[in-house]
Amino acid sequence: xxxxxxxxxxxxxxxxxxxxxxxxxxxxxxxxxxxxxxxxxxxxxxxxxxxxxxxxxxxxxxxxxxxxxxxxxxxxxxxxxxxxxxxxxxxxxxxxxxxxxxxxxxxxxxxxxxxxxxxxxxxxxxxxxxxxxxxxxxxxxxxxxxxxxxxxxxxxxxxxxxxxxxxxxxxxxxxxxxxxxxxxxxxxxxxxxxxxxxxxxxxxxxxxxxxxxxxxxxxxxxxxxxxxxxxxxxxxxxxxxxxxxxxxxxxxxxxxxxxxxxxxxxxxxxxxxxxxxxxxxxxxxxxxxxxxxxxxxxxxxxxxxxxxxxxxxxxxxxxxxxxxxxxxxxxxxxxxxxxxxxxxxxxxxxxxxxxxxxxxxxxxxxxxxxxxxxxxxxxxxxxxxxxxxxxxxxxxxxxxxxxxxxxxxxxxxxxxxxxxxxxxxxxxxxxxxxxxxxxxxxxxxxxxxxxxxxxxxxxx
Length: 460
What we know:
Strand content: 15-25%
Order of helices and strands: EEHEHEEEHEEHHEHHHEEEEHHHEEEEH
Strand order of the largest sheet: 1-6-7-8-3-15
Number of domains: 2
Radius of gyration: 22 Å
Distance between the termini: 36 Å
Number of strands: 17
Number of helices: 12
CATH architecture of the largest domain: 2-Layer Sandwich
Oligomer: single chain
CATH topology of the largest domain: Chloramphenicol Acetyltransferase
CATH superfamily of the largest domain: Chloramphenicol acetyltransferase-like domain
């Protein structure tokens, strides 16, 4: 059994004075869980063995000057909402070692063991005392090294979080300085409600309609009590192409006689893979009832969908959840992949700038947002609906440049979530090499996982 020894724990503050005061959040920030997303960056190059932790601390202190909100603390305000006190209280930095080797962790699939490589967050503490960012650098007996990161989701999402990590890495390896990195933009004005506030223009079922439950179930929460497990599944470039080809195989039949300019574009790898995961999950769960309703939800980054577009250096949350049309197990399992992929497209294509603004206005009109928050990365109980069996909640990290996090020891050999606590939660991520491969991380009830894997690789 691998053991981890903590050698030191320190608070890193900005190297120079930073602005103080209250940062108000957009409702895109507000409905995100205030708990922390745990991720790991794994390094096994020879250079990692002699990594200078002090230089990491120094560069971290420097990067926190432009990223000063990350050193603040949250405060509750009316309506179950939060604000950020930019008080330069700092971030936590832990140094640790393990008697294990990197290979003892296998493929670093999300698990309790991998979660221990990320600093634990005491969510029972007053929220005003909890850092927005926590880091743990763990050295292994083989010479490898892991950086574990816990980031508060209210303050950053995947896109803004990885921009911070990669900027820090570029400074740590000496390629950039505080003045030459892409400067973060903290103003949340881009995702604020309209003034005066308008009623929503769409039916935002993501928030107004609970996800389906198992037919005949008198207590949906029982599904949330089932034993679950996580796994990582690799898709090669060739397998991805097979899925895309399968999803598009009957596109010609659907578009015969349609003018060229009106021809729909082929299904993307995103649509094909989520559609495939949806089919496999329905088959693996084997409820035995073809009329069982099921849905999938996924967050969509709206930076490029807003008018005008949100700048790429925006440092807040810019992803908004969308819900695919409700289907039934029988249709998902018997129809071709194009059916499920089409439902994914139908759900995600509705996320226009106008739809996103309407959703922001809907959230702003809620007296209390506590009921909307859910967390798939901590044990904190939330009021929001359970999105596990018979449903899925899938996040695409395919556009996030995790593997640019080179601190001077080369690219990480793996980066991904350290823990998934919720049945039905999944991530689609880039593989560590530039070979076109992807990695799917997913958590399902243990009794369903073997069949999910079997169906996942069947015929590809």
